[in-house]
AraC family transcriptional regulator
Amino acid sequence: MESTQHDFSGIERMCGPEGKDWVRIAPDEGPDGPERIEARFGGPAYSPHRHDTYALGLTMDGVQCFTYRGEGRTSLAGNSIVLHPDELHDGHSGVETGFRYRMVYIDPETILDALDEKARSLPFVPGAVMDDPRLAAALVPAIRDLDHGVTPLEWTGIVTGIADALAALDKSQQPARRTPPDTGAVRRAKAAMLDRLEADIGMDDLETITGQSRFALARHFRNVCGVSPHRWLTYRRLDRARAAMADGESLSAAAAVAGFADQAHMTRHFKSAYGMTPGHWRGVLTMGTD
C-alpha cells in the first residue's frame, strides 16, 4: 500500500513528547457523540483486542502495522483504516521512528441509521487499509479538531458522509435509488436555523420542524444546497460576522452576535472559508474603503 497525499488541511498536529508514546482524547461528547483520539507509538502499541464500534481513522505519520482477520496489515501516511465491530486486532510500529494516527469510533447502529433508508445491513470493507479519496475526505472532518467538540448538527453531516463512503466500498451493497429531495423540509430547516443563529438549534427541533429524520434531512439538504446543514449554517454565521465587523464591531463582538462560541471559534471557521483571519480581512476591508 503506497502512501497517498490527501487533503489534511486544517488538521492541527499534536506535539507530544519526543520519542514517547502518548494518546490524546477529544472532549467527551456524551452518550450519543463520537469518541475521537490521536495517538503516537514507537514500538508495540496494543495487544489483541476488539471494539464494539467501527474504528475508522487515518495514519498521519510513519508506518502503522497490525494483524486483522488473520493477516498482517500495513498503513502508511495518508491511508485510511476501517476496523469492523468485534474484529480482533493488535498494533505496532513498522519503523523505529514510530507512527501517529487519528481515529473515530462510531456505533454500528449510528452508521446503519445514517445510510439510505433502503439499506438492510451494515457496510463491510474487508481490506482494513485502503487508499480511497472519498473515505479519507469523509473522515477528515471527524478528526480535524480534537480540541473542541462537534455539535449534533455537525456530527449528523459527518456520519452521513462516512456511512455513504463505507457503503460505496462494499460491493454487496446495492446502489440506492435517489429519493427526490424534500425542498420544503430544507426551506423550513434553513428558516429555523436563521431564526436561531445565535444558538445551536437541536436536532430534535429540526426533526419536528421538517418532518424528516436527522440523517434524511442531511441528505435532502445536501441534494438541494450542495453542502451539509452545518456547513450552510457556518457560512450564514460568517456572513453575519463580516457584516458586524464592517459596521465597526470588535472581533469578539462579531463572534458573539454571529453565534460562534468565542473569537477563536470564529477565527478557525473564517480562515477555513476565506483563507485569511478575520483581523486580516477587516484590515484589508478598511484599506479598500480609504
Q: What stands out?
A: Residues 22-169 form a domain with the Jelly Rolls fold (CATH 2.60.120.280). The beta strands are 22-25, 35-41, 44-49, 54-68, 71-76, 80-83, 89-93, 99-106, 129-130.
